[in-house]
Amino acid sequence: MKFNFLFLKELKQEKTWFIMGLPIFIGIGIALLLFAKRWPTQCFFLSCIPIIAMPIIVLQNLLGSYTKEWRANTFQYLFSLPVRGWHIVFAKLAVNIVILVVFSFIASSLFYTLGKNMEVEFVDIARLPYAGFKNFWFLYILLIIPALPFHLFPYMLTKSLTKISKLRELIIIVVSIGLLIILFNYFLPFGTKMFSFLPEATISMIGDNGIHTSGSANFFPGLAAWTLWGIIMLIGDCIIVDKHIEI
Fold first, then answer.
1. Distance between CA 152 and CA 230 in Å, rounded?
2. Phi, psi of 221 (to 5 degrees)
3. pLDDT exceeds 70 at position 242
4. Domain count of the chain?
5. Least crowded by CB within 10 Å, which of 69, 70, 139, 246?
6. Does residue 75 belong to any structural domain of this protein?
């Protein structure tokens, strides 16, 4: 019930995304589909922009929601409620994941449709229990969602500290991200080896003479390691907020 209350609160705060952003986003997609008959290449490359931009925009929105809470001192209200730190973190994260899923689904559909109209052949990972667009969108989401708590961690760390200047805050964020990247470089090979029991992904590309298998890759172990790293960062975010509540 506590999580539901916070989730609905965050959803109401982000209602502009759905009331204004969604119709505009759909309108742009329809416009690109209409103009695709005349300028197919240009429209196809324009459809790449939302695919790349959506993760960045959602990440900035997630960080911005925390910034607004801290500046308005409304976090003190959240801390006064009988909630745990993970309730706060999960509520904000869940709402931004909903935004990401809805908008990226539309963006991916547009990109995939325009690509098919141009007869662009997409890479197919044969061992996934999905095909075509489901395959493409499923991988897109799985790669992006673990990145959200990873980028949130250094920001949460600096906000849990008190009386630091903007310059020190920036330095701490940069150093934290650098350290996390260094740790991740060691974690990924270890994680890939740990999940080596997962099947390799057979990557195939459709050519003029049929399907040509280009080889296999340890994609699934790497993806599992990446997801585990995101979960570790998410646990870290929850611990930081819990400590802040106790203070």
1. 10
2. -60, -40
3. yes
4. 1
5. 246
6. yes
pTM above 0.90, yes or no: no
38 backbone dihedrals φ, ψ, rounded to 5°: -90, -40
Token pair, residue 227, equals 């997801």
Residue 10 inside a domain? The answer is yes
Would residue 227 count as lying in a domain?
Answer: no
147 vs 31, 55, 169, 230, 241, CA distance in Å? 31, 9, 21, 6, 19
pLDDT digits (tens, 9 = 90+) for 169-213: 788 888 888 888 888 888 888 888 888 887 776 655 555 555 555
Instruction: List the beta bridge partners of residue 6.
Output: none
Q: Phi and psi dihedrals of 212, rounded to 5?
A: -115, 115
Strand ranges of the sheet holding 210-217, from the earlier edge strand across to the other edge = 124-125, 201-207, 210-217
Flag whether 192 is in a domain. no
Distance CA 63, CA 36 (A): 35
Where would I find the H helices in 48-165?
Answer: 48-71, 75-80, 85-117, 133-144, 147-160
d(CA 148, CA 57): 11
Torsion of CA 221, 224, 226, 228, to 10 degrees: -140
Dihedral of the CA atoms 13, 18, 19, 22 (nearest 10)? 150
The range of the structural domain enclosing residue 107 comes to: 1-120
Average pLDDT, the chain: 77
